Amino acid sequence: MAKKNSKEMRGNDEPMLVKSHDIRLDEEYVNWIADIKHRYRSTQVKAAVKVNGEKLKQLVSVMLPDDYDKKIKYNRLLLN
Questions:
Q1: What is the mean pLDDT of residues 58-75?
Q2: Predicted confidence (pLDDT) per residue in 4-32, tens digit
Q3: Which of 16, 32, 41, 69 pairs with 57 at a CA distance of 20 to 30 A?
Q4: Is 72 within a domain?
Q5: Distances (CA, A) of 52 to 16, 56, 58
Q6: pTM
């Protein structure tokens, strides 16, 4: 009896399983993934800074009744 290869046994509509040792990563792909990771982390940090700044503005506006004092104390907080 002839031995069937894996493609014949699976049929054409089933997905092919690939093991990690079957994949070779070229330098361009590795650099592309590193760039995506860097941009993602950078965006996360920018978003966190913006959110924290807005939280600080809200906190200052609730704690300080006078607008002039709010601006001065808020600016001092940002400089520290």
A1: 69
A2: 555 555 556 777 777 777 677 788 888 99
A3: 41
A4: yes
A5: 46, 6, 10
A6: 0.49
What is d(CA 15, CA 4) in angstroms, rounded to the nearest whole number? 17
Q: What are the tokens at 36? A: 């995506």
Are 21 and 38 in contact, with CB atoms under 8 Å apart? no
pLDDT confidence band for 1 (50 / 70 / 90): very low
Q: How far apart are CA 80 and CA 76, in angstroms?
A: 6
**Domain count of the fold of the chain:** 1
CB proximity list for 77: less than 8 A, separation 6 or greater: 56, 60
* Assigned domain for 60 exists: yes
Enter the tokens of residue 4: 């069937």
